[in-house]
Amino acid sequence: MVVKVNEKSVAAEPMNVGGARQRLLTPERVDNIDVLLDRLTLAAGASTRFEPSTKSLAWLHLLAGEAKLETLHSRDRLSAPHSAVLPPGFPATISTDDGASLLHVEIPDAGRLDKGFSNTTPLFTVINWTREPVLKAKSDGRMRIALVSPELCQTAAIKIQMVIYPPGATASSYHHEGAASFMYILSGRGEAWANGQRLPIQPGDVVYFSARERHHLKAADDSELRFLVFYAPGEFKTIWADPSKASAWISTERDINGYQTAQDERERRAFSDGLMPGPL
Predict the structure, then answer these.
(1) 224: closest CA among 162, 144, 168, 185?
(2) What is the pLDDT of residue 118?
(3) Are 19 and 42 in contact (CB under 8 A)?
(4) CB 3.0-4.6 Å disulfide test: which of 84, 170, 176, 227 passes with 126?
(5) First CA to last CA across the chain, in angstroms?
């Protein structure tokens, strides 16, 4: 059954680091949930440490402000377009000079969702989604950008994408076999439909769909809709109510600004370092 909650309705719990935590997706809110979602707000000068267990996987996404992410071997400056995957047993500290807000996703038992988890260690990955390749729907201007995927992060426990619907855009009805999904609305307005039930959506909404729950979204006619979508596990099958209306996606081979992507740069570095064979 669909679950919807807006972050404004969730009490903020004080953190001893100078900030607050809002627990958006919890076992109390969703039965048999495999993924936990929190919104963290850090005050100016605050820092907090993340310590995934050897069984868990974590993901961070900056919503507002700027921060610094420090690990044993790296230091990255983050702003609103950035997100990071923290592998199991991989501690990291995030700090901010002027304040920041972020999403924190945790999969407490990633092995339940990824059969190869014990054999393949997920990669520590920091990306700027505005530099990643855009997939565009053939039928309209909808766009999808991968933030977490097996290709990027070496894990099938979860798949995360940035999705953008132009004003008035909609998808045909569908459901997923083998995965639950949920979304976090970043900006814009629209409506979600779940098994015939209409749910108005706005920024700060989290909408959770169980596996096999038929659903689709529509952006308001006067509002672009931008949201994060999460699939757990990251390998599943999409079943369309009307297969003739299934969305088809093509790669633009460019980022959202029309430039060469960070993926292109990563591959060029791999060629130059001898990590990939050169073109034939």
Answers:
(1) 168
(2) 87
(3) yes
(4) 84
(5) 51
**Contact, 276 vs 268, CB < 8 A?**
no
The model's pLDDT over 88-141, given as tens digits with 9 standing for 90+, comes to 999 999 999 999 999 999 999 999 999 999 899 999 999 999 999 999 999 899
d(CA 2, CA 180): 10
DSSP letters of 85-116?
EE-TT--EEEE-SS-EEEEEEEETTGGGT-TT
Compute the distance between CA of residue 234 and CA of residue 114 in angstroms, rounded to an integer.
8
| Run of H or E including 32 | none
| pLDDT score at 17 | 81
Q: Can you tell me the distance from the alpha carbon of 99 to that of 106, in angstroms, rounded to the nearest whole number?
A: 22
Supply 232's token pair. 């757990």
Asked if 63 and 102 count as a contact pair (C-beta separation under 8 A), the reply is yes
The residues that bridge with 76 in the sheet, in sequence order, are: 69
Q: Which residues contact 12 (CB under 8 A, 6 or more apart)?
A: 20, 21, 22, 41
d(CA 137, CA 143): 6
Give the pLDDT confidence of 9-18 residue by residue, as tens digits: 999 999 988 9
Taking the whole predicted model, whether its pTM rises above 0.85 is answered as: yes
Q: Within 10 A of 273 (CB to CB), how many other CB atoms are there?
A: 8
